[in-house]
Amino acid sequence: MKQILCSLMLLSAVGLMAQKGRIDIQGHRGARGLYPENTIPAFIGAVKLGVNTLELDVVVTKDNQVLVSHDPYMNDGFCRQVDGKSLTGDMKKDYNIYTMTYAETQSYDCGQWGNEKFPDQQKLVAHKPLLADMIDSVEDYIRKNNLPKVKYNIEIKCAPAGDNIMHPLPEPFAKLVYEVVKKKGIQDHCNIQSFDVRCLQEIHKLDPKLPIAILIADANNFKKNLEQLGFTPYAYSPHYILVNKKLVKQCHAAGVKLIPWTVNDEKKMVKLKELGVDGVITDYPNKAIQLLR
Ligand code: G3P
Ligand code: CA
Residue 219's pLDDT is what? Predict the structure, then answer.
């Protein structure tokens, strides 16, 4: 009996250690290296591969719908009108999503024309989905296929220069996103990220328990960045070239996870894991899963 108890304790300790050491593999824009970015096929594809987390971006339409899109406009690099016509004119002015209704956004296809930066992407007809529909599709797929839950890492695409032009002000923007999160009941398996601390502060006011990740592009002063945010976030997410031993130590001493973006090179993925990051955001979750798990 004593022996069985000891073995059980050992097994559960090993299990806990494995869980603790598990790296969070996040599929960037779903799995941009393999599918059209931020589309339902990309998110389902990433779930099938076995990511822990789906990274995605959100913007807002004229009729206040939260739409999954990296750019707050139709990007002529990979979007066309559904009749195949290329986009002409100024992308940001003439195809600004904040001036289009949700119905209007659906007359663009951002999947079947490919993306020359990602030649391995599958070419599929795909429209920018509503955040609510994306969550429903993913949750439905997981339920039907009896798969483990995934987390959502939702980036609010907000910047002072775009206020009231490309998107709402931080307060209404955060409210719109949080309403969807609440309605879909994903508070326990999502976090909100942004480069814009104003949006993160608004989300924190709405729900202080909701995990927040601060995105960092260059100014890598951990202490200052956290001071600017005004509270301790769940995660610090810098560009991967900013990761070093000192930063790993600083994050962990503060109880903050370190989850860099967007690393696609295999050697760099391994190096980051060796340095001790808690997760990686990648366009190629297939490579990361194979190498890092
Ligand atoms: O998750 C962070 C990363 O996605 C930030 O960069 O421009 O791809 O949204 P971007
Ligand atoms: Ca993003």
Answer: 84
Sign for the pseudo-dihedral over CA of 82, 43, 232, 243: negative
The mean per-residue pLDDT over the stretch 175-197 comes to 98
Residues in Cβ contact with 278 at an 8 Å cutoff, skipping those fewer than 6 apart: 23, 24, 235, 257, 258, 259
Q: Is 239 touching ligand 1 by the criterion CB < 6 Å?
A: no
CB 279 within 8 A of CB 23: yes
Domain edges within the chain: 24-292
- Residue pair 26/281 in contact by the 8 Å Cβ criterion: yes
Which of 124, 128, 127, 129 lies closest to 112 in space, CA to CA?
Answer: 124
pLDDT tens readout for residues 230-274:
999 999 999 999 999 999 999 999 999 999 999 999 999 999 999
Q: How far is the CA of 73 from the centre of ligand 2 (A)?
A: 15
CATH architecture of 24-292: Alpha-Beta Barrel (3.20)
Q: Is the beta carbon of 262 within 6 A of some atom in ligand 1?
A: yes
The whole-angstrom separation of Cα 282 and Cα 212 is: 19
